[in-house]
């Protein structure tokens, strides 16, 4: 006898739910629960979306649910709505959003028991701290490890203890009887932890500036959906505003949850430390959790579950955290909201910032978007009065002023025959030497990693290219390799030109490695450190390198945008910008917006703690309007000019766009697919209000031997575009001839 049916979302490209039967004896599944179900010849994890007493699927086709994950509280209706919205808006199946949104470990039923088990923990008592080290026999290595692990953080999970010592359980019990430790058992999902005990001192934080105070007041007064654009110059103390607004929220509603998003994993430790310090007295340690892709799977699942059960009050994470289940979410913060890293570039191509705003609206709560250089999309919302603008116009720390920005005209330098050093102009080198003498730090920014972007032969014009991509390969000197930044292909550096045998093949252009090398001889005695994707490949190494900078073990820091964002460097008083000009003439209409915000961000690293800061920008186009706005720190002027240009040119945010991308074995196949897709659009009524452009190859047309092309569609009506895209899907699925295709809504790179 069967008791009922469930409709389950599976991680599968079709936008349908799958029916399964569940037996009467089993605990009845509820919407939002995870289940294990047979699919084809495998068992997979699915999410129950509906429970019903009947199914239209013929009985002989129906299969049974294999297991229900009853220990995990169901995902809320609001979370399911979020997943459904994201699926609909970004043109994917519900399961393609909901399941990848869960931590990987939860999607593995063999780990359910362990993850959802009650937590058993031992906590070290003062008597134990005193007695334990002496009480243990000198040779008892495993016992010592146990005691050390306990002493390190003051507490130890039973499961972790068992991994350290096979007889951990009876040992810890005997220690408990001796009064050395206490035992605690927390049922899984036992709900919010109490505020932290007495003893911990409340951390006050600095006296707020008037502007900060006004911003905090506005945010904490909000009792319904309220989007705020916190426009604060670099170093103006935006973090302090978030902290105070969160503190006010938690004081008012001790059970409330908040989500704080940062654009990069590397920024989480700095934020986490600030949050832990500030809330040490009011929140238990496990009430603040992080969520990002750098966490081990088990930890990520535990943190996700802490958010899901309400134990975690503050969730700090990168873009993926926007999909966390937060049943009592009462406030959202998106720091550096303009950052392109909030856009996921594969799978579900969502904007975490946009979803954060949607969640705030769904729940009727405030959301704070913070930036020194807001995206033009958000700026335009504020201009229209849809977002409330909060402005921090000055740096927070007394004496800290925005750095002086100077342009170094490279043409002029050359004309006057002034010395330069491997791409480092005379004035920049002199300025770095002066910093070195004063014991201050310099930062050199250029957005290109590797040694040189091109290796070429003067004699015959040969250029080292990737055999799989339509791209040059980058010379990496430390590894003595040529490496393709698009597909990872690698080869040794040839001794001579493979075409003509000339041995004088030379690197052209400069990357971070080459500048690092040049700095060592241009500024003798300086300790130079490079931070980019290559120097931080090993897990944890970025953190270690940033610590060296903070500790003052570095005189000159050279790196890519990794060093530009968010970091609060105290002793950096000079920033040098090299090779920024390329972006001025990009075909991408967002290139200048991106360049401007990058340069504002990196300039913002100088002079944060009261040392007078200076920024030197090397350029061939010192009269370019972008550099002029930069030199005046004039974001508002820049943004308004850009918006006027965008309006005149009918570009976002004045129109809405989507891209259809196709990947084929040949470019012809990709283009043919797109032209058929364009033809299919004409049959869709809503497409009358949609403009369809010609299919074009991507700039890097071939990657990994796959040819790529795209088709842009746009409309002044978001609704018309959405309706068109939805109606387009079945037609696209029916087309053949390419390896892959995808639709991206609100694309950032065109
Ligand atoms: P932003 O994120 O706006 O670039 P931060 O939040 O990193 O700036 O703050 C810059 C520095 O100013 C930090 O060292 C911070 O501790 C300090 N700060 C913030 N608010 C105040 C204040 N009201 N008084 C003194 N220092 C402050
Ligand atoms: Zn040659
Ligand atoms: Zn390649």
From TrEMBL:
Annotated Zn(2+) 1 binding sites: 457, 460, 497, 500
Function, as annotated: Initiates the restart of stalled replication forks, which reloads the replicative helicase on sites other than the origin of replication. Recognizes and binds to abandoned replication forks and remodels them to uncover a helicase loading site. Promotes assembly of the primosome at these replication forks.
Gene that specifies this protein: priA
Its Gene Ontology molecular function terms?
3'-5' DNA helicase activity; ATP binding; ATP hydrolysis activity; DNA binding; zinc ion binding
Leading EC class? isomerase
What's this protein's name?
Replication restart protein PriA
What the record notes about the co-factor is: Binds 2 zinc ions per subunit.
Q: Which reaction does it catalyse?
A: Couples ATP hydrolysis with the unwinding of duplex DNA by translocating in the 3'-5' direction; ATP + H2O = ADP + phosphate + H(+)
Query: Which organism is this protein's natural source?
Result: Paraburkholderia dinghuensis
